[in-house]
Model the fold of this input.
Amino acid sequence: MGQIIDGKAISASVRAQLKRETELLIGQTGYTPALAVILVGDDPASAVYVRNKQRACAEIGFRALEYRLPASTSQKELDDLIDALNADDTVDGILVQLPLPHGLDEQSVLLRIRPDKDVDCFHPYNVGRVMTGKSRLAPCTPMGVMELIHSTGVDVAGKECVVIGRSNIVGKPLSMLLLRENGTVTVCHSKTRDLGAVCRRADILVAAVGRAGLITGDMIKPGAVVIDVGINRTPDGKLTGDVDFATAEPVASYITPVPGGVGPMTIAMLMQNTLVAAKEHLAEKGK
Ligand code: NDP
Done:
């Protein structure tokens, strides 16, 4: 029987720790960390994500700046806002909620955010820093996965780690974080031959695909740690992961549920990145 990794509880404890650290920082320096979130257009899912980010900022004690721009916003207007926030030394983190409406260039937006304020960690400079192992910022979802693995007490060093999915926001950076902790990492994708055989080697198995029930119990090594990043909707509107929980749970040692596993960690890690950025900015100012 696999032990359930409670992402909701772990996220709450990370946020509580960040709140304590933030209170201490404000007490010592008089400076309040600030996160600016830009939402362009009226995508309802994006609006929910932005609202949740604002809530988390308020809970931890950050200053939350919200910029809601119409879908008709031009590239120049968006660029000008980013430039202004880049130049504002009371802003520590800048996040542009993706996807952007048609006609706006996501890649140029990601390149425009100053790397030291890039709390999503999508700028190529930060991507490179994650790869070279130098960065204290890392993309939020992969970092959340690492926190969940750490919560089990299982040491990554020397373990066979299999990551299914090679996206730039989850699979690839996660493989780098596992490698940083001395895991032996295999990355699978849609062209991988005999996915089951590769998965069965894994002591730590992470699914980040977006296909409900792709990973079944017979693909899991007995005693493996199983982390399910996938978020899929069933025909009756419920959320479900990439792992078939019913058959996987009896085989795994630890397993994340969906919802309530990786999902709640992403915002907690965004908050952590914001605090890291604020501390680095204060250190640069000699505070
Ligand atoms: P992408 O669609 O960008 O990447 C999916 C990856 O899965 C690709 O690398 C693809 O391979 C691979 N893949 C597709 N089909 C198969 C298959 N049959 N066997 C093996 N690999 C396969 O997705 P994301 O990385 O953005 O997201 C993955 C999932 O995680 C989604 O469900 C998403 O909703 C969820 N997610 C959850 C987050 C959270 O906070 N919990 C945050 C971000 C994402 P190829 O490269 O060859 O096409």
The chain has a mean pLDDT of 97.
